[in-house]
Amino acid sequence: MARTSLRDTSNGKIFSTANLIFGIGQISKMTDVSTRQLRYWESKGYIKPKEREDGNTSRLYGYDTFLKVSGIKLMLDEGYTLAASVERTDALMAEAFNIRGFLLDAYHGQATIDGNTMLDLGYFDEDHTQRLYARRTEDNRVHYVVKPENGAN
């Protein structure tokens, strides 16, 4: 059976955030950061509006900017300086996007193993004879199982 990753599904459009676009007022309301602060952060290069091709000058921001503004605000609320908040948020976002990309590539669907629904994480060995499966237990630990190819039941 051919396996597809979530990234391949619907030409990579499933769970895409590309069309999540927000005006500066919306970002301000969603993050509790004033439009004045957002403009200041933009002037410092911490955030960047989307490029507009329609000649309109109103600021539009993507989902990534929403996440970044939310992270910076959280760090500021925890007592970090603006520069430290931006640095920490950038590092956390880079890690999160790396994890997201990894999981999109590694995920090959679900399987039932010993009565449990588990994630199929693909081949475990270079010879493609075994597959790695994982699930979270009731106490939120990760449990792994290696089974022969076609070993799901």
UniProtKB/TrEMBL annotation:
Pfam families registered for this protein in UniProt: MerR_1 (PF13411)
GO molecular function, one term: DNA-binding transcription factor activity
Transmembrane segments: none
InterPro entries: DNA-bd_dom_put_sf (IPR009061), MerR-type_HTH_dom (IPR000551), MerR_fam (IPR047057)
Domain HTH merR-type: residue ranges: 24-84
Keywords for this protein: DNA-binding, Repressor, Transcription, Transcription regulation
Domain of life: Bacteria
Identification of the protein by name: HTH merR-type domain-containing protein
Upper classification of the organism: Bacteria, Bacillati, Bacillota, Bacilli, Lactobacillales
